[in-house]
TrEMBL record:
Protein name per Swiss-Prot or TrEMBL: Xaa-Pro dipeptidyl-peptidase C-terminal domain-containing protein
Record-linked Gene3D superfamilies: alpha/beta hydrolase, Galactose-binding domain-like
Coiled coil: none
Lineage, opening ranks: Bacteria, Bacillati, Actinomycetota, Thermoleophilia, Solirubrobacterales
InterPro entries, per database record: AB_hydrolase_fold, FrsA_esterase, Galactose-bd-like_sf, Xaa-Pro-like_dom, Xaa-Pro_dipept_C
A Pfam entry, by short name: Peptidase_S15
Species annotation: Svornostia abyssi
Domain of life: Bacteria
């Protein structure tokens, strides 16, 4: 070896030794959000909480269970999204092991999951909401942890659940993981309601007494939400459970209008939600904490009319904190998503937030409605994927400057199709909700001399259950529990101890929104429109104006919009309900849940009116009689003047 080559070799050895003994701080740091170790997973890094001792205390000390998913490289600060789960779920609700595995893709997780978002460059925090799963929801997670004694759920309350998300995002900012200028929220169902609240809160927190304060991280950094994607959520939990039929989605409303008069209880959904919440979550005893008294709320609503008195005012007083109302200021940019056929949270919940956010000056507000939601939604995966991609693109545009958000006020409708694996139809787009359905089909009739008389009836599970969204779902859940018990008890245990929403399985397969039934069992009060000479597309909120007289204090009308096929079978499209005032007479208007649907040639729109629709809606406590002397139905259409024939 020559002297020069030997010198080079010795230099290389010295450099290698120096590199090997360099302090760890010289190497690229490895992020550890909340002290959690991160492991490679499906092209990103997954930082999992695996013990109760790792939980993160919220603002009031309640320990919160969570995971964090990071992009494949980098140490932050990252644009960050908090993903909030559905009722009775946990952090795993929107977590997957591999989003490219078809076996893992559902109508919920198709392009809407922690790994897909981390691949887009986000730090993703998946949170188990307080009172569920390991966030004090299970007995094991509460014992022996004193901080869990009051760690019950508050049913999506901005003073607790929304503030938990704000606290955790602030902690990530202080750790250098989250970029304070690029904070976002994506929530679904129960989490969608919280996401709407966080958009309206924007840069404030709601305190337990209902007042507001600036949002700061624990270390004092001023924070604000930069963008929100809210899927199938609620703007007002009270009207979701007790609709009075006054709001049709055509502008702003108020919290008080939702209670004037008190509405009609969604019985089957309320039973299911209360049972699952009480079983799968941590709730206080009956009559306990007013902000969390789930059992007390159900008892008061189920007791029935008249809705007044101390218990009623107690319920009403806490419900405003589970809504978007009363929050001052300019909301954050917001994309709202709902589903047609969603009998639990129909698109009017998103429309309330859409109009209210625009009225309060939000810089970006857009609406999309399709087929991914609660029963009877079709939950077709191709449609769900298209909607979720638009949601992620919206966040990208606002939080990462990648792409352009949809024009503010714009509407995107992906209409209902059958069967659920049919090709995704061309969307219906409009610059605003008011421009969605410029045309209409109208029909009706009646006679003051020969009124149609309807009488209320008591609860009848057998007579009406064929059209109730949850009766078949309940049977499906029982079958799934039995199957898991026999073949996979570990999966059953996991569902019962954490993500209990897994028990619902594919709701669309159970509730069969595409099914056809005979029109022979129609109500006496039924009006059928003209047959379509050429196909036409319904888009917007249909309405029926009824001329009626009521005898009784707590009357109600329930309405159904059908697609009547030429062979006499029909498909249920949308529902409406309206609480009547005592002995009400004159003209009343009942809106249907907004819809987008194609009527084929020869098909007819049909509207049916009932005085009872149980168990979907709770029957009135006292009997009443309706005398209907006339009806006028208006169905909005994309076509300015659809061609019809008698």
């Amino acid at each position: 070896m020559t002297p020069l080559r030997g010198a080079v070799a010795r230099a290389c050895i010295v450099i290698a030794m120096c590199a090997a003994t360099a302090p760890a701080s010289a190497a690229e740091p490895t992020p550890a959000p909340f002290g959690l170790p991160c492991q490679p997973k499906a092209g990103v890094r997954f930082c999992e909480m695996t013990s109760l001792q790792q939980r993160v205390p919220s603002f009031d000390g309640v320990p919160i269970d969570l995971n964090v998913t990071l992009p494949a490289t980098g140490d932050g600060p990252f644009p960050t999204v908090a993903m909030l789960h559905g009722l009775t779920g946990d952090k795993s609700f929107v977590e997957v092991d591999d989003p490219d595995d078809p076996a893992e893709v559902t109508s919920v997780t198709a392009d809407y999951n922690n790994i897909s978002y981390a691949r887009r460059g986000y730090a993703v925090i998946t949170i188990t909401s307080r009172g569920f799963g390991a966030s004090c929801g299970t007995p094991r997670s509460r014992r022996p942890y004193p901080a869990c004694r009051r760690g019950w759920l508050h049913m999506g309350d901005r003073r607790w659940e929304a503030r938990d998300a704000q606290t955790l995002l602030g902690r990530l900012v202080d750790e250098g993981i989250a970029d304070p200028a690029r904070l976002g929220v994506a929530g679904i169902s129960y989490g969608g309601g919280q996401a709407m609240q966080l958009a309206f809160l924007k840069d404030r927190i709601a305190l337990p007494d209902g007042t507001y304060a600036p949002w700061r991280s624990p270390a004092g950094t001023p924070l604000a939400i930069g963008a929100v994607y809210a899927k199938m959520g609620w703007s007002n939990l009270a009207t979701a459970l007790l609709p009075n039929g006054r709001y049709d989605g055509a502008g702003t409303t108020t919290f008080d209008e939702g209670f004037t008069p008190p509405g009609v209880m969604k019985l089957s959904y309320s039973i299911a939600a209360t049972a699952l919440t009480a079983y799968g979550g941590h709730v206080p005893g009956l009559g306990g904490d007013a902000s969390a008294d789930v059992l007390g709320w159900f008892t008061r609503l189920a007791t029935g009319e008249p809705y007044r008195g101390v218990k009623w005012e107690r319920l009403r007083g806490t419900m405003i904190h589970k809504s978007i109302y009363g929050i001052p200021g300019v909301p954050a940019p917001l994309l709202l998503e709902s589903a047609f056929n969603d009998d639990m949270l129909d698109p009017r919940q998103s429309l309330e937030a859409y109009h209210q956010a625009r009225a309060q000056g939000a810089p970006e507000v857009a609406l999309q409605i399709g087929e991914s939601g609660h029963p009877r939604a079709n939950n077709a995966i191709p449609q769900a994927r298209a909607l979720s991609r638009r949601g992620a693109d919206f966040l990208d545009a606002l939080l990462q400057g990648r792409g352009t958000p949809p024009p503010s006020g714009s509407v995107y409708l992906s209409r209902f199709t059958c069967p659920k694996d049919a090709p995704v139809p061309e969307p219906i787009t409009a610059p605003s909700w008011d421009a969605v359905g410029p045309g209409s089909v109208t029909f009706g009739g009646g006679s003051a001399e020969r009124p149609v008389v309807l009488r209320s009836s008591p609860l009848d599970l057998y007579a009406e259950s064929v059209d109730d969204p949850l009766v078949p779902l309940g049977g499906g859940v029982i079958r799934q529990i039995t199957s898991k018990l026999l073949h996979s008890p570990q999966e059953l245990a996991k569902a019962l101890q954490g993500n209990a929403a897994d028990l619902a399985g594919d709701a669309a397969d159970l509730t069969k929104p595409c099914k056809l039934t005979s029109a022979a069992r129609s109500s006496a009060a039924t009006w059928t429109g003209p047959a379509a000479a050429q196909p036409f597309t319904v888009a917007g909120t249909a309405r029926i104006a009824l001329d009626l007289r009521t005898i009784g204090r707590y009357g109600m009308v329930s309405t159904r919009l059908w697609d009547l096929h030429p062979d006499g079978r029909r498909r249920l499209l949308a529902r409406g309900v309206r609480r009547l005032t005592p002995n009400e007479g004159g003209r009343v208007v009942v809106p249907f849940g907004p819809y987008a649907y194609r009527f084929e040639a020869g098909h007819r729109p049909q509207v049916e009116v009932l005085a009872a629709d149980s168990p979907m809606y709770k029957p009135s406590r006292e009997p009443f009689t309706l005398a209907i002397t006339g009806a006028e139905v208006t169905v909005p259409t994309v076509e300015p003047q659809p061609t019809t024939r008698p």
